[in-house]
Amino acid sequence: MNTAVSRLGSALLSSYFVALAVFLYIPLVVLVVFAFDNSTIQTLPWSGFTTKWFHNAFSNGDLVAALERSGVIAAINAILATLLGLITAVAMTARKHALRGVVTDLFLLPLVIHYVVLAVGMLILLNWLGLRQALWAVLLGHVVVSVPYSLLIILPRLRTLDASIVDAALDLGASMFTAFRRITLPLIVPALLSSALIAFTISFDEFAIASFLVPAGKETYPVYVYTGARTPALEPQVIALGAVVVIAALVIVTAAEAWRTHAERRLRVGTP
Question: What dihedral do alpha carbons 126, 127, 133, 135 form, nearest 10°?
């Protein structure tokens, strides 16, 4: 009886995983497939194979500029969010604070606030301060929503470290900074990489905050895609560049995961 239940549960979980994978990845496959369709209308059957949409997409200065803009913002956001998450995590693990729970809740609050609400609040704040919509405001909003994820990735890793290793370094005459740089930091590099990737992805894909805060003529990639999807002449170019982004993302994530796994394996065996 228990064996039958176990097999049924395993079959249900496997079916759920397959259905979830299909639901998540079939749209990406469809996007890549239609990026090579010769027709401006994405319907089956194909009207012919072509790569002209990729040429048109990379010849579209506005589209490429939006992609570069999002990439720069996402890269800066990854650095800032990971740095702030690291500083916060170190502060929360260094010593016991009476208000640790309150501080943690404040840092994690953006997780439960809708991005549209946050964007409207930031837009009102900018107007109250006499400032206009700007890309730095978009970056600030992305940092706000990315720091909680960075904290949730880095903090558990710091808590798994053996504090006696750092104490031994301090007893041997190392300063706090040296102990952190030579011992703690190398041990949390995989977590830092994961944090940076998550923060980069959040910023690169984020639409709600950017749609409220980007200045006219300086749209980020998601905002430009949303606009282009409603313009039939631009839709094939958007699909083609989207296929490039999907493939590049898969390559980067696969390479980063392989590197992270390799780094963790080296840490476990204690090799330099």
Answer: -10
Is the pLDDT confidence value at 252 over 90? no
User: Would you say 93 and 158 are in contact if contact means Cβ atoms under 8 Å apart?
Assistant: yes
* For helices 189-205 and 61-94, angle between their N-to-C axes, nearest 10 degrees: 140
Sort 45 into a burial class: Cβ within 10 Å, 0-12 / 13-18 / 19+. exposed
Task: Evaluate whether 204 touches 221 at the Cβ level (below 8 Å).
Answer: yes
Counting residues of the chain whose pLDDT is more than 70, the rounded percentage is 87
CA angle 113, 118, 124 (to 5 degrees): 150
Please give the Cα distance from 235 to 31 (Å, whole number).
11
Three-class SS state of 49: strand
Task: Record the tokens describing residue 238, joined without a space.
Answer: 């958007």
Q: What angle do CA 266, 259, 207 make, to 5 degrees?
A: 140
**CA separation for the pair 247, 256 (Å, rounded):** 14
Query: What ranges do the domains of the chain cover?
Result: 61-233
Instruction: Please name the helix (run of DSSP H) or strand (run of DSSP E) that holds residue 203, with its range, or none.
Output: helix 189-205
Domain 61-233 superfamily per CATH: MetI-like (1.10.3720.10)
Instruction: Report pLDDT for 267.
Output: 60
Q: Are 194 and 153 in contact (CB under 8 A)?
A: yes
Residue type, 159: R
CA atoms within 13 A on the CB side of 267: 17
Query: In terms of Cα–Cα distance, which of 240, 188, 226 is closest to 55?
Result: 240
- Residue 162: how many other CB atoms lie within 10 Å: 10
Residue range 114-139, pLDDT digits in tens? 888 888 888 888 888 888 888 899 99
